[in-house]
Recover the amino acids of this structure.
């Protein structure tokens, strides 16, 4: 166990004890530098929301970066532990965001979901969906909704409007393909175009 004078123990000593599986030392380090993890996660929260990533998963990635820092810290080379932790967590989250920010991932999300946030409390489906299902939205944003729907109608082609109306009424891609008697890929392509056009408007 770490002695009662643990406040006087240096980071280097704590790192050594943690490497020896000393639970007290591990907890002391975590409590001491958890703020770095929290701050770094906060920096990437907006990007995570934009990519529809789970914030809990983002935090888990940050903790992996933190653990890597504690395990790989070398006092002879890395003379400032907080900076090293910050570097490792930042690198881990940056790579995680970059990995999920590929064209392929964007296309998949565009084709399969209308759950992207357009504000803190509203999804895209809430904004453009059936007004009867969103009385609170109507009350607060009636004019904005009408204007948005008008703009959407102006930019969508007839075939895109057909798919769009089914999407916002909670039909799945498979349902739409059956209703319109088309290949599922046709629905995916139309959905991707619809979302791209709507994003340009919002």
């Amino acid at each position: 166990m770490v002695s009662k004078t643990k406040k006087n123990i240096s980071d280097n000593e704590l790192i050594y004890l943690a490497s020896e599986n000393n639970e007290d030392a591990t907890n002391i380090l975590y409590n001491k530098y958890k703020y770095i993890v929290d701050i770094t996660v906060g920096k990437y929260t907006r990007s995570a929301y934009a990519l529809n990533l789970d914030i809990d998963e983002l935090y888990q990635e940050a903790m992996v970066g933190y653990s890597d820092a504690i395990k790989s810290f070398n006092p002879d080379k890395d003379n400032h532990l907080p900076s090293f932790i910050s570097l490792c967590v930042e690198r881990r989250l940056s790579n995680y965001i970059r990995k999920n920010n590929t064209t392929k991932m964007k296309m998949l999300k565009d084709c399969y979901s209308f759950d992207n946030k357009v504000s803190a409390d509203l999804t895209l489906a809430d904004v453009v969906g059936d007004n009867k299902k969103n009385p609170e939205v109507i009350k607060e944003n009636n004019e904005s909704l009408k204007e948005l729907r008008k703009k959407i109608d102006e930019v969508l082609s007839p075939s895109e409007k057909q798919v769009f109306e089914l999407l916002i009424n909670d039909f799945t891609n498979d349902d739409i393909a059956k209703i319109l008697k088309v290949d599922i890929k046709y629905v995916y392509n139309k959905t991707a175009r619809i979302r791209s056009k709507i994003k340009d408007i919002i």
